[in-house]
Amino acid sequence: MAEVRIRPAGADDALVVAALVLQCAIHRGGSGEPGFLDRYARAWLADQRHLPVWLAEVGEEHGGFLQARVVDPLPLPRNEIAPELVVEVFFVRPTHRGLGVGEDLLRAATTWARDGGFAAAVMSAGPHTRAMVERVGFTPDESAYRMELR
User: Which residues are listed as membrane-spanning (predicted)?
Assistant: First the structure.
């Protein structure tokens, strides 16, 4: 079995992230469009600080990715403010499922958020991913799953 490595995506990975987003969209029934990779890469790079991405590498292949959004709340009187991490896109390529890639991606993202002082991580989960997100520590919270980080 190939080693699974999780790492944050950097600026040099913009086209890799775009290609994985496209693979995810196609897997979910969408289709590609001319110029998408460049358009996505430019948009992601323009706001990379608020759109962290983690890449899963399995051997020499990209096994999946997790893209989140940092939500910074506005200050309120007498309240400590801390950002939340909202998982927006989470995809493990079908050939790499069952290897722990998804759990590793979620753990990397939530560890980063916890270490960064975030208040919580939030995501929705379908029937095929609920057990996995619960193993990582998320709990059902109305229409989404939520993990308190402090």
Answer: none
Q: Name the 3-class secondary structure at 78.
A: coil
Name the CATH topology of 4-9+50-148: Aminopeptidase (3.40.630)
Pairing of strands 120-123, 84-92: parallel
Whole-model pTM over 0.85: yes
**Dist CA 147 CA 106 (whole Å):** 11
Instruction: For the chain, give every domain's residue range.
Output: 4-9+50-148
- Nearest of 84, 77, 66 to residue 121 by alpha carbon: 84
Q: How far is the C-alpha of 85 from the C-alpha of 94, rounded, in Å? A: 25
CA distance 60 to 44: 24
CA distances from 106 to 26, 75, 114 (A): 22, 28, 12
